[in-house]
Specification:
- The protein is mainly alpha-helical.
- It folds into three domains: about 100 residues, Orthogonal Bundle (Fumarase C, Chain B, domain 1), CATH 1.10.275; about 210 residues, Fumarase C, Chain A, domain 2, CATH 1.20.200.10; about 100 residues, Orthogonal Bundle (Ribonucleotide Reductase Protein R1, domain 1), CATH 1.10.40.
- The chain is built from 19 helices and four strands.
- A hairpin with a 2-residue loop joins strand 1 and strand 2.
- It is elongated and about 100 Å long.
Amino acid sequence: MSLWRGRFKEDMHPLVKNFTFSAEIDKELFNYDIEGSIAHARMLAKCGIIKEVEVEKIIKSLREIEKDIQDGKIDFSKKEDIHMAIEEELIRREKDAGEKIHTARSRNDQIALDEKLYLREKIKTLCSTIHSFQLTLLDIAEANKDVTLPGCTHLQYAQPVSLAHHILAYFWMFERDKGRLLDCYKRVNVCPLGAAALAGTSLPIDREYTAKLLAFPAITENSIDTVSDRDYVVEFLSSCSIIMIHLSRFCEEIILWASPFFNFLEIGEGFSTGSSLMPHKKNPDVPELIRGKTGKVYAALISLLTIMKALPLSYNRDMQEDKFLLFQAADEVKLSLEIFTQLMKNLKFNTQKMRQKAEEGFFAATDLVEYLVTKGVPFRTAHRIVGKLVRWCIENKKDFTCLSLQEYKKFSPCFEENVKQRLSLEECVKNKNSAGGTGKKSLEIQIKHAREKLEIQHESFSLQAR
């Protein structure tokens, strides 16, 4: 019989049991639930609410229960939730002492605590995984500083850039992702235990002591807000969704670049699949699946936003539905990052093809505009001049490199012999030395800053161990 059944005469209907019981899902929180219960028991003893001898029994049994769960010795299939399952088992083993564990707490603040302990660990793990991914991207960038490819806007060739610069664009995206997670961590890292059901408790508890035992730097300020809050889960899922945006965009480019229409790279065979019908096929299933899993992470965020959007204060059972969404999204993001990191290490770039495509078209058009600007021509005037030059070249089936100086001067007397120096692919890339640009000097600075940032982060905190 459930621990809360004192007020009821009738047993719960079997359909209601199946509908409401969640232990098979939230059992993932068992170790956090046990850590929270141990801290809570220690606090109760410190405050004289239970005896020290009872605490020792409780802690000993909780550790034994934890090991039994790890060894698969406890069946959760008929349990209401992980919190009640552990408490029921503790009572079975320790009788009266076990019955005291829930003093001055509710499942409402207990659930919030377990989720926050879970999220603290997941955020650290995800940050560490992103860190490893960034190291891979940085290594690839440093190895491809002199490789040129077409840089696009609207998926149309815009200006040539270095492959390193393109790869580093994703490095900085994921740096922001890491920052969002660490910022989310600040709001996760506030202890909810002691808020009880919604009003606090009349018993002389010490919430700050519990928080200290669990390494929380602060406690929540309002008991009603504490038990009704899932902002920290929403924020985490939002951060996960943005991570998946970035992964999905990267995957889209890998898929495009691996196609014969681009032929910019080849995905390693260990990260490709074949066709059951067409023997010649080599399919980019890994990036396609990550692109597809992005929708599942988005769905988790939208689902929780929808669950929370109209709930009155304080706790409502609707909030139970957050756990499956949270667990699934956290797992999908971590796995996607890990496998994509390995995929990146197994890419072979077709640098000759990249250069060939970068040399096509009017890649130096913007450089010609800037050349005229250095000659004193107003930018908009220079833009029109080069636009007319491009149209003339298209109509006459010519490109910039084969034009004579006299032909250039037909469009502007400001063109001089040195204009030819602005037409090489290398010059068009290396001269973009504005801060953050693809130029040779600015690229070196960017790589240096990226490497320093990762080294500082590694020295200032060990993400995996904290």
